Amino acid sequence: MQIGMIGLGKMGANLSLNLMEHNHAVVAFDVNKEAVKTLEEQGAVGAHSIEELVKKLEKPKVAWVMVPAGDLTEKVINELQGLLDEGDIIIDGGNSKYQDSVRRAEKAHQKGIHFFDVGTSGGMEGARNGACMMIGGDKEAFAHIEPIFKDINVEKGYLYAGDAGSGHFLKMVHNGIEYGMMQAIAEGFDVLEKSQFDYDYEAVARVWNNGSVIRSWLIELMERAFSKDPRLDDIRGVMHSSGEGKWTVESALDLQVPTPVIALSLMMRYRSLEDDTFTGKVVAALRNEFGGHAVEKK
Amino acid sequence: MQIGMIGLGKMGANLSLNLMEHNHAVVAFDVNKEAVKTLEEQGAVGAHSIEELVKKLEKPKVAWVMVPAGDLTEKVINELQGLLDEGDIIIDGGNSKYQDSVRRAEKAHQKGIHFFDVGTSGGMEGARNGACMMIGGDKEAFAHIEPIFKDINVEKGYLYAGDAGSGHFLKMVHNGIEYGMMQAIAEGFDVLEKSQFDYDYEAVARVWNNGSVIRSWLIELMERAFSKDPRLDDIRGVMHSSGEGKWTVESALDLQVPTPVIALSLMMRYRSLEDDTFTGKVVAALRNEFGGHAVEKK
Amino acid sequence: MQIGMIGLGKMGANLSLNLMEHNHAVVAFDVNKEAVKTLEEQGAVGAHSIEELVKKLEKPKVAWVMVPAGDLTEKVINELQGLLDEGDIIIDGGNSKYQDSVRRAEKAHQKGIHFFDVGTSGGMEGARNGACMMIGGDKEAFAHIEPIFKDINVEKGYLYAGDAGSGHFLKMVHNGIEYGMMQAIAEGFDVLEKSQFDYDYEAVARVWNNGSVIRSWLIELMERAFSKDPRLDDIRGVMHSSGEGKWTVESALDLQVPTPVIALSLMMRYRSLEDDTFTGKVVAALRNEFGGHAVEKK
Amino acid sequence: MQIGMIGLGKMGANLSLNLMEHNHAVVAFDVNKEAVKTLEEQGAVGAHSIEELVKKLEKPKVAWVMVPAGDLTEKVINELQGLLDEGDIIIDGGNSKYQDSVRRAEKAHQKGIHFFDVGTSGGMEGARNGACMMIGGDKEAFAHIEPIFKDINVEKGYLYAGDAGSGHFLKMVHNGIEYGMMQAIAEGFDVLEKSQFDYDYEAVARVWNNGSVIRSWLIELMERAFSKDPRLDDIRGVMHSSGEGKWTVESALDLQVPTPVIALSLMMRYRSLEDDTFTGKVVAALRNEFGGHAVEKK
């Protein structure tokens, strides 16, 4: 099949290579001309604009958008909306908010364009060698593009999940679970670290990956991380986050689902961004007022 | 009435003054001879040992223990156990664990000694001018000492709560609630601090204390604190804790009562004691492994 | 001063009575004609439409909107926006989202209308006899309406908090704190309830209100509640919520402020709305799969 | 090697079979004579008492205790302490509290007996076919029994973790992490369940196990569970717990490690044991008092 790939960053470039390796033709565009050139050398047909990319595609045209979520995705999809026609297909493979995908699908439908929202998990490595893709959109049109997903993912590593938005929603919830699992693992190692015992963390991660209930890819990654830096002495415990964890909590609040673990995982990340907190100052001030407990001066 | 006061720290000394002001006779002992001397000058009869203190008391002897909870309280009460006789009274006014009070009461009963566990809230100021006291112990014997509590506390500021241990248990839970309230207030001010608005916190605390649902002594204390240091610039947000919050959570776990708010209040205090966390390092290392997200080096 | 009151529900009617008692003239409108009539009998000038209400006001016209937050408030303010002129004043006294207030103020300013967002705490009783009001809006124009707030609130029970939106934001955070305080108190009583002791809760609330650190209006209300139903046997523990707690958590997420206590207070409310949870089913199913732990059948 | 197995419940029996399959000789005892007989038929040497079991073992005698943690384990180990001599070995393979293991090891050492605490993860299936074992105890003596662990576990599925107690501590923390992971997964499915989309949960679990970041044995188990009961309609969401999660939180409190996720996982389990809560009643009563919000009657 022929796919137009818009956005050749780490994810888009690796995905293109993955597609070509499975004998799909890729028409590639990026605002960065070097990125286009590099991919041309690896077998893609280059394009210098989205308009040119669309022209080079055969009907039904398939445009895969792999640009940062938010304004840029909005801009690209709006442009595609003008250039594509009935029966053509837009795939948003980025980390868009599911509400945006629902809205964009509705707009695309007005012109008879099929819209698919594809959430991807597995990182760059996954984009290149096979990841896990969660796909929302028109069920009937999906038959047309399913062969792509069969080829580029790990075995059974894709799911048509339902109506437009369901792919990004599922990816969002996946990341919420990921936040919770990561924090659970991290708390566990923190308890080990402060205990009276002297554990070899790499060995701990290894044994947990051999037959225990918590064996998982995340624990495998911890084994790998500890093999490089046995006590993580070199790094700081600052936990950044992208949007999906926050969106999961916001969705949970909208749906009135109690998600204490996912919410706390996110909040402990926020906490790690601060050296000192106003919350702490208020509590310290209160303790000083009623109990005469000394405050620590700056 | 005549009371033997053992332990003349901030709480014990203020309590003694409060007692004497209400025409009770105080026999006072502390390992710190200066403290004894000072109180003698204020009207108390001094003693140089617990043995001497007990000798100076008339039957039924009332010994009020006001020393740090734990080993020291254990030691003093054990000594009193040997010196007192049937019908005498031990009052433990410290912050003892309620299980210890239950145990000590049982032991005292074997000799016919009455044991009272008294939890106090209200700080030094309260000890001097009237606090809130929660009292567990023998119901019938309580009639004998009730006049003391009527005199030294604020109006309605004492409660015979039930069997031995119930006083310290009630005080423990009071402190658990206190932790939760303080953290709730602190989180609120933290949201204000990070908002787009520019609030005058002293004025905020003042208005909240005039007619709002959250009006409380703690908000009054915040008004006082902000009047001295309007943005708490001078202090660090390190939140220490004494034992009662932890005991409340431990009791909740034993009783299988979900107490997320009290538990999290305590855990955020622990979090504030650390500049960096192993939890954070583990999460940062994981994000680096699967997503190539850069870690912050030390 | 003369005030046009739009919305004569519990809050608006009580507020009108309060205003008239302090010698302010009230022009009153509600879609419910009975409500208008009742207030006319108590001294107000009635109006049969917002248009009529505006006509009956003298310059600068002051319209106080006291209708349910959301669509209805939007509709009323839009209508006022068309009817009022430069120098006139709109007061939104409902529980609007602060972002809406910021937006409405900007729109009002285009026509030279002053907009004030007023968050109120204290319930119906407060509306009638004096509450706590947190006010955002144009600082200079505030001087004109300040006498109203001085009259109708408890002493020091109003605060000009800053730019438009700051009043509703402050009220929102107040409610977030309220959620946390309430959950803290409730957890404490739950620990007492499951303990080995047999407490008289009304007496507990009373003693806590006499000299303890947690003395507060909320504990006073608990004393009142327990005086009517000593063990709350008659009611179910279903905890509903209006929007402000949720908005506080959402704002905290946007501002990256960790607010575990406020978030958990809200989530435990959501939890109380369900008899059984899908979360619980998943965990029970997992335990069955790996450990052979029996599940409870429906 | 020759091993004396005390306790032939699900775990002990399966472990014995596993040992014999790897050409180890098993002397087996249980208070249940049927269990002994069954195992004799499968190749073990039976014993009618712990004393007889010990007599039938050759020096250095290895006694593996596989009875319920707590009083029973205490009793059995005390008996073994009397029967064994210098150089003999006690293995506690149950879910004992690590503090008990530290204490028992110290006592065993007084007589020159080696003590090992072995935490096992992997369930019955693991006991039979290879699990994950975390082992604390005397390092030098471990060389003598290591071949057993090499034979009966999955590849790399055992770890000598350190001094006595470190095995059970590690197992405890493992379970704490397990609680957090399970709750995270469950919250995610709950958000899916309440969403506007209509997911096939078995398919969701399957796709997540193919290439996603959260792929893990627990998600595999969810796929299995959903294959049997697609929406878990037949079961109730009651989440029981054994002791390790609670011990992890208690240890975290002792060590002042903030573990919000593990703590909340546990507390949501407790919450699931109750149909109605006193916490909820208190909050509902408060809302009624200050806001006139109707309570739900029983």
From TrEMBL, chains A, B, C, D:
Pfam families for the chain: 6PGD (PF00393), NAD_binding_2 (PF03446)
Q: Where are the transmembrane segments?
A: none
| InterPro entries (UniProt xref) | 6-PGluconate_DH-like_C_sf, 6DGDH_YqeC, 6PGD_dom2, 6PGDH_C, 6PGDH_NADP-bd, 6PGdom_BS, NAD(P)-bd_dom_sf, Pgluconate_DH
Q: Which GO terms describe its molecular function?
A: NADP binding; phosphogluconate dehydrogenase (decarboxylating) activity
Using the record's annotation, list all stretches that form the 6-phosphogluconate dehydrogenase C-terminal domain.
167-298
Share an example GO biological-process annotation for this protein. Answer: pentose-phosphate shunt
Any idea which UniProt keywords this protein has?
Gluconate utilization, Oxidoreductase
| PANTHER family reported for this sequence | 6-PHOSPHOGLUCONATE DEHYDROGENASE
Q: What does the sequence similarity comment in the record state about its family?
A: Belongs to the 6-phosphogluconate dehydrogenase family.
- The protein depicted here goes by the name 6-phosphogluconate dehydrogenase
Species of the source? Priestia veravalensis
